[in-house]
Each structure stands twice: as C-alpha cells, then as structure tokens.
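Entry:
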Amino acid sequence: MNASTKAYEELMTRLKRTALLASCSAVLEWDEQTYLPALGSEHRANQLALLAGMVHEQATNPEIGNLLQELETNADFTEGSFEQANVREARHEFDRATKLPRRLVEELSRVATLSHHAWVQARKANQFNDFLPWLEQMIDLKREEASAIGYQGRSAYDALLDEYEPGATSEMIEQAFLPLRDELVSLVSAINNSAVAPEISILTRKYPVEKQREFSISAAKAIGFNFDAGRLDIAAHPFCSGFGPGDCRLTTRYDEHHFPGAFFGTLHEAGHGIYEQGLPKEHFGTPSGHSTSLGIHESQSRMWENLVGRSRAFWDVFFQPAQALFPEALGNVSQEEFYRAINDVRPSFIRVEADEVTYNLHIMLRFELEKSLISGDLKPADLESAWNEKFVEYFGIKPDTSANGCLQDVHWSAGLIGYFPTYALGNMYAAQFFNAAEKELGDINKLIASGDFVPLKEWLNKNIHSRGKLYRANRLVEVVAGESLSHEPLIAQLQNKYSELYNL
C-alpha cells in the first residue's frame, strides 16, 4: 500500500466517523419535530449544541487537512473518478468548516432548536412578534457565519447559499430566475384571463385523516419509496431526513378538509426519500454517498410530486382507489374533474400547497427577502410588512394571517438561509431530467398509466442518485441532460400542460 492509498483510506475513515456522529444528531432533530414534548426543547437544544460541537471538532481535525494536502500533492486519481470527487468535496467542506469557530457552530444549533419551538407556537397563535426575537438572533448568527466564511467582494448571502448549492452565487440565481419569472407572469396572466374555472371545492370536502395516510403511503410505495427502510410521521412542516443506509424518515401534515396538502406533500417527501435510499450505501459518510446539492435533491421531489403525481397518467392508476377510499368526497366526481381541480392555477398563500405555475414566484419572493435580511437592507422587525407588500406585488392578494404569511415556513427558524432558491432550481432541473429520461425510456406517461414506475425510478437511481457528489449540480445536468441549466424545458412543459387545461 503506497502512501497516497493509505492517506486516502484514512481520510475516508475520518469522514465516515464524522458522518456517523452527525447522523446521531439528525435523529434527535427528527424527534424534535415529531415527538419531543414541548417542555423538552431547552434540554434538546443543549443536546444538539453539544453534538454539533463534537461533529465540528471531528470535521476540522488538522489531520484531515494534512491528509488532503498529501493527496492533492501526490495522489494520481483517475480524472472524473469517485476518489477525485471525494478529495475535491472533502477539501471544500473542510475549508468551510475550519473557518467557523466551535462556539458559533454550537450557538447556531442551540438557537435553532429553541427558535423552532418558538416558531411552532407563534405560528399556532398567528403572532409574528412572538417569533421576532428568535428571528433577530438567527439573522445575527447567520451574518456572523457568512463573515467567518468570507465572500471575497460578493454578497454575504453567497457564503450561505454555498452550503446548499455549492459553487452557486446569488448573481447566478438571479440570472436563472429573471427569464423564468417573466415567462411565468405571462402564463399566469393568460390563465387568469381564461374562462375555464375548475371546481376546486371537491378538494375541501371531508377526507378522513387515517384514509389520507393509507392512500398517501400506497402512492409512496408505488413510486418506489421503501418503507422497510423508512417511515412516515407527522410534523408542523413536512420534511425528509436520511440518517444513513436503511433509515430514511418522511413527515407530512394532514387537514381533513384539504386533500392535496398531505397527499402531494407525501409524494414530494417520498421523492426526497427515494434519492436518499438510492445513494450508494458503500460510500456512506463520504461525498460519493451524499446528494449533489439541494437543487438536485429538490429536482427529485418536485418531479415525483408534479411531473408524475399531477399527471393524467398517474390518476389513470390512482383515481378509482381514491374514489373507493373517499366515497363521500369523490363518489360523484369524474376523473377529469378531479384532474383539473388538482391542477388549478390561482394565487394562494401557502408555498407547499401552491400550484406548479405560481410556485416559483413564492420562491423568488423568499429569495429577495432573505437576501435583504442578510445584507441589512431589511430589518427582521419589518419582515412581516415587507412580506405582505411583496406578496401583493407578486400575487395580488394580502396574507390574512401571520401563519399564512411570513410564519408559514420552518426554514428561517432553523437558520436555513440560502435554502429557498434550491426549490426553483429543482423545478428547472426536474424538467431537464424528465426530458432526458424520456429520450431513453420512451413515453414515460404510458409507463405511468400502466402503473409501472420502476423504469423512471431506476433511471434516476442510475443517472443521479448513484453518482453522489461525483459532479457539481451545474455539471451533472450537462452530463445527464446534455445541456446547461435552463428555464426553457420547464416553461415548455407548463405551457403545454396548461394550454390544454385552460384552452389558451
């Protein structure tokens, strides 16, 4: 065994050990949002802060830097190999982590736990001011984080964005969003001027929660989520946590009088889960066993939720079972009426329940606000009024409550600043990947209409999941789809679908 081989194996051992410890923290974070008693939040905050510090200590061990230096100087890895990618991404993560003092890492973890609890209570009470002190603390901490990481003349926001979409900048995001926004505004205007009006009241009839759960699980199983290696629980805000091989947790939330929320939310999180379950087990803890970026992760969830779950072909399979489970709500409803209802386009308050067309406008609103929060142009105390003003500008309606406005998302309470843009990136990537899959598999909707979801899942496993961080997101889409990131495939899909639905 030569020195470089030994150094590489030692580096991988250290990375896996750190990831294992981080996965223990992730279990406690999942429990915090699902089963933790309300009075346990302070103790949980201390537990998570301790673990965050321990993970940070391991991740910044100087020996990792020595190993990376040895490999970067002497190793001769095959171009485009997993080994090369592991060293590249390990260097990126090490350099980022070593810029952050352990004190800050622990404080971010502690405040995030307490802030999440405060957010849950404030959201229930519709009281933004109850959450404001925690938001102020979190923004101060995230600014400190950005300053510690550094951004070399760019926006401080870029230092935070890089955690979720490595290599991306706010300028790149803006360049991608601008043409997308223009096309979406035009499409929304055309739909609003259409005489077609789907009967959406059928979605707010009574849908018993236990039957919703049963139906959602059956759909998640059908598209490929393995419940022998995962489970579904309830949380204030839906999310997916992949702890490691064989353990992936989904959450959703139910409303007896709103069918789409839990069902499409579960499909969305199952899409994330299928990605987590498709990562190569043998590479757990290394970059090769980790998702490329959150934009790519979101491409998987949004594909299963929208391109599959909201298609006519999907409901060729699932509408009759839905009628059988919900006879009171759907017994006198045709499949076509139901299909049009779940694809209704209109301005709405809640991002996670928004239609495909307006969804990205929700993301752009948040992107603009959180950039302003980090730059200092927007004070946390003014967030609610700024949100409401911008919401009227984007959607023509004003949120009626804080819970339907700036308190609806968990992200800012958890310090996930820079996360939101990845949702819109995911929608663009999803359209490009779907087109690429169809070139290879043929008409995917025919497969879906026959109840066969395996070819698409296996194509995604092969082309995206199994590659881990072999490529950065911008390169992965080029390799898989043969083109750079573009809004055009997404707009083409939306225009094709909704022109038919709304007689445009």
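Residues 3-34 form the longest helix (32 residues).
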